[in-house]
Amino acid sequence: MPGSPEPNQQPEPDALEIATDQAITACDGDLRATVQALIVANSLLEAELRGVYATASRGFARGKVKRRREVSGET
Fold first, then answer.
1. Res 12: pLDDT
2. Residues 6+ apart with CB under 8 A from 27
3. Structural domain boundaries of the chain?
4. What predicted TM-score, i.e. pTM, was given to this entire model?
5. Reported confidence tier of residue 70, pLDDT bands at 50, 70, 90
6. Which pLDDT tens digit goes with each residue over 22-63?
7. Which residues, 6 or more positions from 25, have their beta carbon under 8 angstroms from its beta carbon?
8. Residue 69 in contact with residue 75, Cβ under 8 Å?
């Protein structure tokens, strides 16, 4: 007994495909402008990350910051 044919279902696009379409649409379909906008956005994110790294102390980031008691000689 043959099974009933399943309707032709399109798989749902994943988040990356949706984001790609949104970026292209935001640049009016101009792929070159889309790539340029993404490069600029990436550069801004990298600059922000460099600022975060500069703000965080190296000792704190590595867990080597001395507590006040140790610095002042108290135990």
1. 81
2. 33, 34, 37
3. 15-72
4. 0.58
5. low
6. 999 999 999 999 999 999 999 999 999 998 888 876 666 566
7. none
8. yes
Q: Is the dihedral of CA 60, 63, 69, 73 positive or negative?
A: negative
Q: Calculate the alpha carbon distances from 73 to 17, 18, 29, 50, 67 in Å.
A: 59, 59, 66, 35, 10
Neighbours of 75 (CB within 10 A): 5
> How far is the CA of 26 from the CAs of 19, 20, 23, 43, 54, in angstroms?
10, 10, 5, 19, 33
Exposed, middle or buried by CB within 10 Å (0-12, 13-18, 19+), for 21?
exposed
CA 12 to chain centre: 23
Instruction: Look up tokens 């801004």; give the residue.
Output: 44
